[in-house]
């Protein structure tokens, strides 16, 4: 089939390349000329495992074209995926202006029957708004259908998640569109749920909000475990053995970040508010997360009278391992608070992107983990990076001024840390000593 994907961000690029692998011809439209130039040369614009070889293969087999020309791309395609950004506004509502702009652009170029698909995460009612825009721009109703097809991929495992997902959700109000969409996805052999557009739109927010709530739940339990001297990992293990609960997303830590959970939980609360519904449980999950990501600061303020002039080292800055993405990473909030309290911040993350250097140019970014700990008062472990698991704890202790560790991801065993000479250790629900 002839496919057009609009937006070469995380989702757009992964979707475009994945579709190209199963016998489709894909045109990927991106408005940023610099990104298009790089992609044409086989340079991946995002860090994602397996993306570069896939991009190169698709280009060499001429299965994909990158362009800024949306008009031509729409005219030449049967199915058009919208995969542009949907950021959160100050009031937690979703900024759908990029989606609406694209809907307007598409409507100018509809020559034959097209299926327009929202891959972006969009609030309930967006499929209808897109239909209305296209209709208001004078396109005949038999020339198009609009389908909601939310995406569930995770960064770091994006290609595998796209090609081997657990479900494909199609929100359709036309038999014709639903049958073409099912045909498109048939090679993936993934179960397909066909439902109404509002249901599909809500499924996406429900999935992310449920997982975020699960994380906030285990984090609250971790905080309580610290007080009553219980072990959160054992609790999570036992909980997860119950198939109704599942072991996934029960890893306690300094909270969730990323481009989706923080944004989509707020959006769901805002969607509820729009319809006069107070979504209390998700509001609480957000509240818990906002406190949890600053837990290392509370620990430091209990431990030291002042942080003024103290060197604090952050190990791992990205919102999770396997990505260079720092969007909404807990580390950003920790750094902000540390700087406000007068601390000197050093950090190590081999994946660190220029983005964080633009936000916080005053930090010391070290290429070597052991350089980052020199003269440090305390280490805060923010991301479960392999380098951190493998660090030589004795060597680290020797280089530090005062070897304290705040293990924000429960990476180490307290007894092991103690045996290597650390003077203090704080975990997220697995005990502490000073
Ligand atoms: N990142 C994820 O892991 C993930 C997973 C599932 C769903 N989503 C959802 O998918 C959507 C996209 O997310 P993302 O992380 O890929 O966003 P992103 O911001 O990284 O990428 C969006 C891209 O669209 C381009 N764009 C914007 N307007 C355009 C236009 N008019 N024409 C052509 N290109 C245009 C931008 O330049 C940018 O490159 C969001 O709604 C997000 O919530 C993201
Ligand atoms: O047990 C856990 C699992 C995750 N996290 C944190 O949760 C955040 C999000 O992790 P993850 O879900 O792996 O990353 P994303 O790439 O943001 O993927 C989520 O957001 C995407 C965008 O909507 C969805 O498509 C995915 O299904 C959904 O998992 C990260 O900060 C993790 O550190 C925890 O703290 N504990």
UniProtKB/TrEMBL annotation:
<dbReference type="GO" id="GO:0006065">
    <property type="term" value="P:UDP-glucuronate biosynthetic process"/>
</dbReference>
<feature type="domain" description="UDP-glucose/GDP-mannose dehydrogenase C-terminal">
    <location>
        <begin position="313"/>
        <end position="414"/>
    </location>
</feature>
<dbReference type="Pfam" id="PF03721">
    <property type="entry name" value="UDPG_MGDP_dh_N"/>
</dbReference>
<comment type="similarity">
    <text>Belongs to the UDP-glucose/GDP-mannose dehydrogenase family.</text>
</comment>
<keyword id="KW-0560">Oxidoreductase</keyword>
<comment type="pathway">
    <text>Nucleotide-sugar biosynthesis; UDP-alpha-D-glucuronate biosynthesis; UDP-alpha-D-glucuronate from UDP-alpha-D-glucose: step 1/1.</text>
</comment>
<dbReference type="GO" id="GO:0051287">
    <property type="term" value="F:NAD binding"/>
</dbReference>
<dbReference type="InterPro" id="IPR036220">
    <property type="entry name" value="UDP-Glc/GDP-Man_DH_C_sf"/>
</dbReference>
<feature type="binding site">
    <location>
        <position position="263"/>
    </location>
    <ligand>
        <name>NAD(+)</name>
    </ligand>
</feature>
<feature type="binding site">
    <location>
        <position position="121"/>
    </location>
    <ligand>
        <name>NAD(+)</name>
    </ligand>
</feature>
<dbReference type="InterPro" id="IPR028357">
    <property type="entry name" value="UDPglc_DH_bac"/>
</dbReference>
<protein>
    <recommendedName>
        <fullName>UDP-glucose 6-dehydrogenase</fullName>
        <ecNumber>1.1.1.22</ecNumber>
    </recommendedName>
</protein>
<feature type="binding site">
    <location>
        <position position="257"/>
    </location>
    <ligand>
        <name>substrate</name>
    </ligand>
</feature>
<feature type="binding site">
    <location>
        <begin position="249"/>
        <end position="253"/>
    </location>
    <ligand>
        <name>substrate</name>
    </ligand>
</feature>
<feature type="binding site">
    <location>
        <position position="327"/>
    </location>
    <ligand>
        <name>NAD(+)</name>
    </ligand>
</feature>
<feature type="active site" description="Nucleophile">
    <location>
        <position position="260"/>
    </location>
</feature>
<dbReference type="GO" id="GO:0000271">
    <property type="term" value="P:polysaccharide biosynthetic process"/>
</dbReference>
<feature type="binding site">
    <location>
        <position position="35"/>
    </location>
    <ligand>
        <name>NAD(+)</name>
    </ligand>
</feature>
<dbReference type="InterPro" id="IPR014027">
    <property type="entry name" value="UDP-Glc/GDP-Man_DH_C"/>
</dbReference>
<keyword id="KW-0520">NAD</keyword>
<feature type="binding site">
    <location>
        <position position="320"/>
    </location>
    <ligand>
        <name>substrate</name>
    </ligand>
</feature>
<dbReference type="GO" id="GO:0003979">
    <property type="term" value="F:UDP-glucose 6-dehydrogenase activity"/>
</dbReference>
<feature type="binding site">
    <location>
        <position position="86"/>
    </location>
    <ligand>
        <name>NAD(+)</name>
    </ligand>
</feature>
<dbReference type="InterPro" id="IPR001732">
    <property type="entry name" value="UDP-Glc/GDP-Man_DH_N"/>
</dbReference>
<feature type="binding site">
    <location>
        <position position="204"/>
    </location>
    <ligand>
        <name>substrate</name>
    </ligand>
</feature>
<feature type="binding site">
    <location>
        <begin position="152"/>
        <end position="155"/>
    </location>
    <ligand>
        <name>substrate</name>
    </ligand>
</feature>
<feature type="binding site">
    <location>
        <position position="155"/>
    </location>
    <ligand>
        <name>NAD(+)</name>
    </ligand>
</feature>
<dbReference type="InterPro" id="IPR014026">
    <property type="entry name" value="UDP-Glc/GDP-Man_DH_dimer"/>
</dbReference>
<dbReference type="Pfam" id="PF00984">
    <property type="entry name" value="UDPG_MGDP_dh"/>
</dbReference>
<dbReference type="Pfam" id="PF03720">
    <property type="entry name" value="UDPG_MGDP_dh_C"/>
</dbReference>
<dbReference type="InterPro" id="IPR036291">
    <property type="entry name" value="NAD(P)-bd_dom_sf"/>
</dbReference>
<dbReference type="InterPro" id="IPR008927">
    <property type="entry name" value="6-PGluconate_DH-like_C_sf"/>
</dbReference>
<dbReference type="InterPro" id="IPR017476">
    <property type="entry name" value="UDP-Glc/GDP-Man"/>
</dbReference>
């Amino acid at each position: 089939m002839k496919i057009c994907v609009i937006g070469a961000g995380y989702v757009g690029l992964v979707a475009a390349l994945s579709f190209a692998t199963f016998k489709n011809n894909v045109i990927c439209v991106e408005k940023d000329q610099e990104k298009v130039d790089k992609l044409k040369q086989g340079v991946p614009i995002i860090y994602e495992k397996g993306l570069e070889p896939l991009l190169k293969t698709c280009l060499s087999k001429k299965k994909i074209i990158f362009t800024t020309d949306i008009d031509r791309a729409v005219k030449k395609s049967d199915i058009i995926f919208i995969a542009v950004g949907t950021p959160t506004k100050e009031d937690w509502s979703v900024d759908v202006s990029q989606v609406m702009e694209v809907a307007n652009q598409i409507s100018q170029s509809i020559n034959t029957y097209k299926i327009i698909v929202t891959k972006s995460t969009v609030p309930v009612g967006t499929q209808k708004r897109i239909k209305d825009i296209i209709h208001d721009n004078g396109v005949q109703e038999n020339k198009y259908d609009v389908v909601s097809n939310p995406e569930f991929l995770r960064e770091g495992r994006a290609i595998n998640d796209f090609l081997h997902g657990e479900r494909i959700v199609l929100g359709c109000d036309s038999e014709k569109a639903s049958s073409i969409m099912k045909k498109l996805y048939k090679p993936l052999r993934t179960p397909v749920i066909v439902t109404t557009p509002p249901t599909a739109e809500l499924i996406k927010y429900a999935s992310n909000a449920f997982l975020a709530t699960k994380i906030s739940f285990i984090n609250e339990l971790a905080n309580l475990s610290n007080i009553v001297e219980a072990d959160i990992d054992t609790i999570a293990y036992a909980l997860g053995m119950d198939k109704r609960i599942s072991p996934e997303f029960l890893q306690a830590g300094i909270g969730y970040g990323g481009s989706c959970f923080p944004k989509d939980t707020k959006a769901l609360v805002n969607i509820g508010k729009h319809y006069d519904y107070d979504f209390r449980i998700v509001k609480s999950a957000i509240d818990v997360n906002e406190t949890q990501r600053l837990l290392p600061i509370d620990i430091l303020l209990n431990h030291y009278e002042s942080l003024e002039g103290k060197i604090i080292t952050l190990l791992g800055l990205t919102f999770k391992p396997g990505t260079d993405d720092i969007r909404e990473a807990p580390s950003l909030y920790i750094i902000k608070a540390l700087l406000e309290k007068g601390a000197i911040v050093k950090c190590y993350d081999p994946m660190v992107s220029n983005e964080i250097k633009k936000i916080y140019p005053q930090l010391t970014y070290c290429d070597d983990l052991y350089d980052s700990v020199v003269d440090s008062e305390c280490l805060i472990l923010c991301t479960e990076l392999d380098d951190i698991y493998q660090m030589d704890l004795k060597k680290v202790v020797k280089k530090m001024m005062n070897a304290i560790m705040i293990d924000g991801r429960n990476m180490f065993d307290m007894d092991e840390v103690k045996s290597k000479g650390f003077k203090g250790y704080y975990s997220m629900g697995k005990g502490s000593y000073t």
